[in-house]
Amino acid sequence: MKKENLEKLRKTYPFNLLSEEEFAEMTKEAKLLQFKKNEFLFHEDEEEIELYFLIEGLAKNILHKTNGEQFSVRYYYPGDIVGLMIMLAGGKMTFSVLALQNCETIKFKKSALLQVMTNNKAFSEIVLEGIGERMKTLYNEITRERNEEETENIPLFRTRVDAIMNKALIISANAPLVQAAKRLRDETETGLVVVDHNNHLLGTLTQRDLLQAIVTDQLNLCVKDVMNKNPYQAQYDSFCYDILSYFKDDHVDFIPITKQDKVIGVLTAESFLQLQDSNYIHMSHSVHHSHSVSQLKKLASVYNPIFINFVEELLSQNTYAYDVCELISNYNDKIHRQVIRLALKEMKQEGYGTPPINYCFIVMGSQGRKEQGFSTDQDNGFILDDYEHLSNKGEIETFFRIFAEKINRGLLTCGFPLCTGGIMAKEKKWRRSLNEWVKEVARWVRETDAEEIRNFTIFIDYRPIFGDFSLATKLREETTETIRKGKILQLLLMKDTIRFRVPLNPFGMITTSGKSKSINLKKAAIMQIVNGIRIFSIKNGIKDENTINRLNKLKKIEAFHPRDVNNAKTALHILMSLRLQNNVAQLRNGEDLSNELSLETMDKEEKKKLKEALSIAKRLQHMSELSFARKRGL
Question: Where is the CBS domain (predicted)?
Fold first, then answer.
């Protein structure tokens, strides 16, 4: 075998724990072997199973059941030892391993590895512990999912609207009003949904609208003449607590539910009778009806004791922490939207008028991913409709500069600190037309450097929350493929994500810093998972910005094994729980918010869970580093 391959292996964990003699003994009969896509590294029918170190490619482990069924147990990524779990099972499990991509491996003699494990206790413990932790995490995840499926009574804060929505009654925009009235009378429903021939939402027609038409003697008109052309609507995967708050407004009778821009159902007030009420609904209603930023500040997440109690209660009921973070992000979205509405009102009062062109306000970073905790700053910007060709270009730029300054100032008042890196709408570089954004993304892909890459990682997780959402959709559509092909960009993203190493030493012990013996949960752990998943998503052209959704899509396209997806979700739940609990304690004690967690405040069980999560984060960081190296290898 080539000397350079052995040298790479020698530097790789856990082989770097071996003495020179032990490493030489284990590799003296090692061979470099290559397997093509869909070729077996080994099959269960083979009499002797050897061990392989995967240098390049992707392989799949297959379990063969006695009834002839087979299913995948895990994937192997560069840096994994293939066949070790089978060897330790002593032939009691029948496995095969299939190459999903062209693979390059180093093949070891099983007897040589066993001899080294016998002589080197530290090496043996690391190998065995890694297998044990992976199996334990998988078992816990499966058990938890099964228990929740059997016993959970879908409370308000965990239910998505598609679980309780009703069938939509559809009508054409050109139908006579009399026909619509008869339809509502016969079906005894609250309203009708008006759609085009592709089932895209055009508007709604309610009993209230029909009564207005009768009073004004307009029954000879068509549906399109009196329908509400800008109704409230919701995505099928929205949480119920977000949508229920709309029904506090007396003008909302029902809400169409859409999926991929097509109507799939409706919600009425009666849809929610099976679900419990919540303080969140009252807070959301109060946010929407705040008349000043000072009034809004009292409702903001970090200043609102009711909201803090609500989050703490959810955590105490073992709600997934990433779902709680989504709740916090959704609530912060409401604060942002009201700040924008108040800024628009000020612009008009001060003589600037209404926005001169279409625009979309976007949030980025953790809020863009819907993964916010209490300790967060502003990351936002504007996508403007193309305006450079217009004669009032200067006036447009002035309007949005002042508008953005008002928004950022209002958000600061509501507890969102200004971004120290200047990633805010008031900065010109974060306030661009659609065409200029497309050009900027292309420039990032083509010539970005290590300093700019951090701005890109925050930007790429953007999400629209106010204005013309189609501008954000167009930007995503026009840039996804460009980013997917940016191999140098992906390398820089990988290098950036390994700036902060997961604080676990080679022996699996947590390493801390400072007198308080703390770790930064965000930089040292959460972001290692988030960044790694982002890189794999970019590579596979996934357009979603949320980490959990990205994981689900990576599993669906078989870029990630279900076991790795479940482990990543488990780690995020543990780490985000600790972060939120730490933030709540800081808010209760009047301390400055931070992501620093002191191990001295943790009990034995909490430290055990933290170590488990850090182990998963370290594996994901290692996967990213190996899979996106300039030359695929060790």
Answer: 164-221
